[in-house]
Amino acid sequence: MIAGRYTLEAEIGRGGMGAVWRGRDEVLGRTVAMKKIGVAPGGFTPDALRAEREAKLAARLNHANVVAVFDLVEESVDGQSQQWLVMEYVEGTDLAELIRQHGPLAPDEAALILAQTASALAAAHGAGIVHRDVKPSNILVAPDGQVKLSDFGIARTSSDPSLTQTGLVTGSPAYLSPEVASGQQATPASDAWSWGATMFHALEGRPPYQVGDNLLGALYRIVHEEPPQSEAAGWLAPALANTMTRDPAQRWSMATAQRFLETRPPLAVAAAGGLADLGFAPNEEPGPPAEDARTQLLPVDTAPRPVPAPPAGPPVGPAGPPAGPPATHEPRRPWPLVVGATVVAVAAVVAAFVIGLHGLGSDDSSGGTAGHRSTAGSSTPSGSATSPSSSANAPTKEAMESFVQTYIATAVDDPPAAFKMLTTRYQVESKGLSGYESFWGDVKAAKILSITADPASMQVTYDYRYVKPGGPTEENVTLQLTSEGDSFLIAGTA
Predict the structure, then answer these.
(1) For the chain, what is the domain count?
(2) For residue 418, which of 35, 410, 446, 447 is within the disulfide window of CB 3.0 to 4.6 Å?
(3) Torsions phi, psi of 86, nearest 5?
């Protein structure tokens, strides 16, 4: 018995930081997950300090999608100290294992998991915490569809002195953002990239970057090359494009990403039946302990470029200003780095990489199947390097609908950015930015209930619900779009 209270029942996982056991809290009579961390004679090891940090940071987050940490205890066995992190436990699996067992996920399936993960990250960022190791094996999935973000072991708060240090890289290489891969400090925007990279893995069945034995080459590609695109993204393409963009300032916040995913009707339908109804519930027979100590944590409870503007609120409302096309961003320019100098810089980062602290893990291998599930309504292939439309000469129904979805999300989150998605004439008709904000400035949330686009007439019709201080309102709106380069603008209402 550990600390006179916890009984160990079975080892359920093992990874770089230690073994994970299913245990029993004899005082409260509940099942728990227990992570064992060694403590060196005469002092704490880096892993022990990491466990203490995880306990303290997780204790600050009371969120349905974050693994709860109950206790941190120390036990001495035969003169050797062991530290145990006691967490909530749930039957289930992690996202990496789920993908290995069932292959790539369809967009609706991935959204059900990633929306909950975005919610957890938004809460962490709101508390001043950067996770720094978002990846599939740290996302735990219960059979009922409940999702938990785990492993805050290398997370930091904004006041942590280590955040001011450069040249020290922590996290899993395949999911690192370009700025972190080049030795800069991690920020909430870095977590957003890793979340997008996790989405890519879920949709494609493999990480966005293959690391293997060539860590230097992987880091170089992350820093200098355009991020890979997913041919299976479907309606998730805007979320992928707006999080896996190399400029941190252009990335969506996790709150914005969460809103975008939750405005899609399929998400609510899927949530009603849990993951089992989507066809990939965990196997009933538990397998052998995973190499990456994550199956342990099974806690309880619970687009094309340029990048489109972040999602925002609903389109034009009753006396509200019109909606407009996604804010256009300047084409991404290659980072102004000399190849030779860059190789040296990346090599220095590799030298500082804390591989021993957090191994590559199961996420970093290709795993899964090479094929994709056929998905109805798939959007344009990711090979396109431009905007929402699959062809500059022939706007598609999917591109037009995706544009309006993005516009609505942007109007709620950032009205000035959404205002730029209107034609100049429609901006004037909306009485300028002040007139536009007189409507959208009060909108707290918006959700598109149904949407259909007609490329022939360049019109998009949708029903949506938006919430203002006076309560929710539902409306039917038809927007007239016009092509603007490879994107669209909103020319008015029809």
Answers:
(1) 2
(2) 410
(3) -105, 120
For the chain, the farthest-separated pair of C-alpha atoms sits apart, in whole angstroms, at 80
Question: In b/e form, how buried is each residue of 229-255, taking b as 16+ CB within 10 angstroms?
Answer: bbebbbbbbbbbbbbbbbebebbbbbb
Cα–Cα distance measured from residue 294 to residue 362, given in angstroms and rounded to the nearest whole number: 10
Segment 154-180, tens digit of pLDDT? 444 444 433 333 334 445 789 999 999
pLDDT at 336 over 70: no
Decide if 94 is catalytic: no
Decide which of 39, 72, 88 is a domain's last residue.
Answer: 88
Assess contact for 381 and 230: CB atoms under 8 A.
no
Name the residue range of residue 10's domain. 6-88
For the question of whether the overall pTM of this predicted structure is more than 0.70, the answer is no
Strands 80-88 and 30-38: antiparallel
Angle at the Cα of 260 (from 259 to 265), degrees rounded to 5? 100
Asked, for residue 80, whether it belongs to a domain, the answer is: yes
Give the other-Cβ count within 10 Å of 443's Cβ. Answer: 22
Split at pLDDT 50, 70, 90, the class of 113 is: very high
- In this structure, the answer to whether residues 244 and 269 fall within a common structural domain is yes
Per-residue pLDDT of 28-72, as tens digits, reads 999 998 888 755 444 455 555 655 665 666 667 788 999 888 888
CA 406 – CA 481 distance, rounded (Å): 14
Residue 446 CA, distance from chain mean position: 21
**Side-chain-side CA neighbours of residue 214 (13 Å):** 7
Domain holding 252: CATH number?
A: 1.10.510.10
Domain holding 22: CATH number? 3.30.200.20
Given the residues 133, 191, 363, 364, select the one marked as catalytic.
133
Q: Report yes or no on 300 lying in a domain.
A: yes
Q: Is 18 part of any domain?
A: yes
Instruction: Please indicate, yes or no, whether residues 73 and 131 belong to a single structural domain of this protein.
Output: no
Locate 396 and state its tokens.
């598609």
Same domain, 10 and 139: no
60 & 143 share domain: no
pLDDT in tens, 120-166: 999 989 888 888 889 999 999 998 889 999 877 544 444 443 333 33
B/e letters for 336-351, b = 16+ CB within 10 Å, e = fewer, are: eeeeeeeeebbeebbe
